[in-house]
Amino acid sequence: MARKLVRQVPIKSDGDVFHEILKERPHHISNMSPAHIQGCALHEGDWGKVGSVTFWSYTHDGKEKVAKAMTEAVDEASKSVTYKVIEGDLMQLYKSFVITVHGDTRGMNNLVTWTFQYEKLNDACGDPNSLMDLCVNVTKDIEAHHLK
Question: How many domains does the chain have?
């Protein structure tokens, strides 16, 4: 059964900054949030292009983890990027896992919205709440980096 988890993070920065980083410069996130993201390498395609494949190294719940993700969609109008996880630690818990990050700029009210769409391998698998917390913390780290 497919599930969905959504969290919005208010930011002071422009949502365009997040869209550009997650689309074209995700390999810079490790410099902005080194406690959470250790690296992002391009394996196939070009940064910011649908079909490109990236390999992520990150720390989740105190453990080193990895994920290989394909860029599934890039929407300039809504400032969103969608990644489909195709290999890595998450695939030990979930049949499918798709992450969409959306930067929304409305005057002084700017938000970054993270959406996880996933299907558990079995009922014993928990929901990815702590992974969502990690994404919220990465968002805050990126913002702090840009507000310096």
Answer: 1
Distance of CA 92 to the CA centre of its chain: 18
User: How far is it, in rounded angstroms, from Cα 148 to Cα 123?
Assistant: 44
* Residue 71 and residue 85 in contact, taking contact as beta carbons nearer than 8 Å: no
The Cα 145–Cα 121 span in angstroms is 37
The CATH number linked to 34 is 3.30.530.20
CB-CB contact of 3 with 127 (8 Å):
yes
Q: Catalogue the E-assigned strands of the chain.
A: 2-11, 37-44, 53-60, 63-75, 80-88, 94-106, 109-120
Residue type, 124: A
Tens-place pLDDT, residues 74-117: 999 989 999 999 999 999 999 999 999 998 877 677 899 999 99
Question: Distance (Å, rounded) from C-alpha 79 to C-alpha 58?
Answer: 24
Is the whole model's pTM more than 0.70, yes or no? yes
Cβ neighbours for 41, distance < 8 A, ≥ 6 positions apart: 27, 54, 55
The structure tokens 């959470």 sit at 36
Strand partners, 123: none
Three-state DSSP class for 129? Answer: helix
Domain range for 126: 2-147
